[in-house]
Design a protein that fits this description.
This protein has a single domain, classed as Ubiquitin-like (UB roll). Helix content is about 10%, strand content about 30%. It contains one helix and five strands, in the order αβββββ. The longest helix is centred in the first third of the chain and has 7 residues. The chain binds FE2/S2 (inorganic) cluster.
């Protein structure tokens, strides 16, 4: 996920449940496509509010954190 990937890269992001429930990981995606691993839905390419704990990057992704 974006949350795990950031952590592995040494970047600390806000989180709580890590299961898509608490919304504490929600942030603004500036660009790039992500896939929600709970719904399987792909995001748009543009600005969108996403949860980093349940989304995986499908392209290079820029987040406002
Ligand atoms: S950490 Fe709780 S919804 Fe993402």
């Amino acid at each position: 996920t974006l949350l795990l990937g950031a952590e592995q890269a040494g970047i600390r992001l806000s989180y709580g449940c890590r299961q898509g429930i608490c919304q504490l990981c929600r942030c603004q995606k500036i660009s790039g496509v992500v896939k929600n691993i709970q719904t399987g839905k792909l995001s748009s390419h543009g600005v969108e509010s996403i949860q980093t704990c349940i989304n995986i990057p499908m392209t290079e992704v820029i987040l406002d954190v």
